[in-house]
Amino acid sequence: MQRWSRKKTQLPLLVLLFIFLAASTVLYIERTIQQFNPEPHNSRQAFVKSTLTTHARANRTAKPLDRFSKCSATVEYSGRRGGQTLRFGNHGRTKSTEEECDLFSGKWVYDNGSYPLYDEGKCPYMSDQLACHRHGRSDLEYQHWRWEPHGCNLKRWNTREAWEKLRGKRLMFVGDSLNRGQWISMVCLLQSVIPVDKQSMTPNAELTIFKAENYNATVEFLWAPLLVDSNSDDPVNHRLDERIMRPDSLLKHASRWQNADILVFNTYLWWRQGPVKLSWSDEEDDVCEELDGYRAMELAMEAWANWIATNVDPAKKKVFFVTMSPTHFWSREWAAGSEGNCYSEKTPIEVEGHWGGGSDIPTMRMLDRVIGQLSDKVSVLNITQLSEYRKDGHPSVYRKFWEALSPQQLSNPSTYSDCIHWCLPGVPDVWNQLLFHML
What we know:
Strand content: 5-15%
Domain Trichome birefringence-like N-terminal: 99-153
InterPro entries: TBL, TBL_C, TBL_N
Family: Belongs to the PC-esterase family. TBL subfamily.
Membrane topology: Single-pass membrane protein
Low-confidence stretches: 1-9, 14-59, 84-98
Protein name: Trichome birefringence-like N-terminal domain-containing protein
Number of helices: 12
């Protein structure tokens, strides 16, 4: 018993000795490592602090822009670009059948046997802003023009064939009111063969959806006039004195369009309305930079192109970009010495290659540069030149926007003519016929 007690009292001493030796070994090893990899304690703290700060900055959610957003201050543009992570290819677009046979070079041919492709009064989704005959336009020649490319044939519109191309798919138009007009045109072209109980229109503020149940397909429109996030993304209340955009973010819109199978984008007219304020996503104090419309559009296009380059597989998703839609505000451009606009015009311009002030060549070159780097991910629907000829195709005073024009306004077409949008049936139907051909 005494021997056992003696051994028991020595056991704690052995444990303490073992702990001391282990601690000494750890300290020795750490000191040896520090001799080869010296790292002062304050440097490690700085590294950890920097890492946490960078992580927090990267993950901070920018305050959403809406029509109530304001800039606390405005400074000159710093030269910053949101496209620093662009992953473009280093080669141009692959030459396609459409480029070998230029669908966009040709002439307008009067055809009152095959056109229009639908009846304005029989499309329940027609917009009052585009229904020119309904609002007093008596001459209907604008509905009967057919586009005829030089040296090749444009595929004739076939509604059922178009639906077969769309079966099980989402076709989405994304952009401004001109793209909305093209969407309305597409719906009017398609809806006639769908039974009434198998079609529906679901307005949802920014996103409006036409659904054909028997084809399990949708034709949608997403209001995104600048493509990137902006304070003008309300589809109704977007007439603002100060245009603000996030040149490095289109996450809000992309979250809606990313699952579409066929995407048709446009943007242009809103960039011609004066300077644009830039609010970067990581700016905490609502300080904005100011930039002219052309360069602001270039930043937005680069952000859009970055999303396309990163997210689009051409084997799974088809993407189209619609070039600028021309305006016809100055009749002196096609009739020297006159002082009118598109009002009362009844025939297209016949001078091939006509280019008016409502289209901008530098912008076209910029788009070609940006989109040209996306290889085969984007097809360009080049509607600019062919639409330049159609001075006769605009609503002018034959429209309703919220309210019909008053007698006083109707008597003053030089001020109240809409020479931007297009009557339906009309020019946008041909844009969709070109899209159908390219699909």
